[in-house]
Amino acid sequence: MKYCKKCLYPDTKPQLEFNGDGICSACTNVKMKEEIDWDKKRKEFVQILEKYTDKDGKNYDCIIPVSGGKDSMYQTYVMKEEFGLNPLVINFHPLDQTDVGKKNLESLKKIGVDCIEFSPNPNVYQKLAKYGLTELGDFQWPEHIGIFTVPVQIAVKYKIPLIIWGENPQFEYGQPTDINKDT
Fold first, then answer.
1. Where do the domains of the chain lie?
2. Which of 83, 88, 139, 179 has its CA 20 to 30 A from that of 41?
3. Does the structure show a pLDDT above 80 at 57?
4. Nearby residues of 41 by Cβ (< 8 Å), 6 or more positions away
5. What is the pLDDT of residue 114?
6. pLDDT at residue 58 in the model
């Protein structure tokens, strides 16, 4: 097994690449974020939101997948309070959700958002966790695939055309990317 010389991330992550100096693509992608024109990105984002916002307020404007962690909680708050969206939040319930995660989900409901909490079949979940651990080195693999599939299924079912993801894991965690900082 090979590890990144900068962050110690192992090479067991699918599609993680290492440069000639032994630095992983997650670490090299950090530099790219420093060169992004964030004001320009915000304007582009507002244009996207305007396109999908339900003007009469009867429907959900977007889906926001949430984990119960601080990042997705903040993201939901900003979408609702700063951008005025009516989001439907989706939580793929881990079998071992923390008390803090539960409390955070309850806090979201208190700011006035609806939340669908999907609880997986524990027998299937455990089989997937074992596979994830033995084949991928990641026992939380079922949570990763759950939070990326369940929101899409719900968006299709309820005809909600916009999903707001909190991060791009392919970029953040090292999958090769052709993201252009200017687009």
1. 1-36, 38-170
2. 88
3. no
4. none
5. 94
6. 81
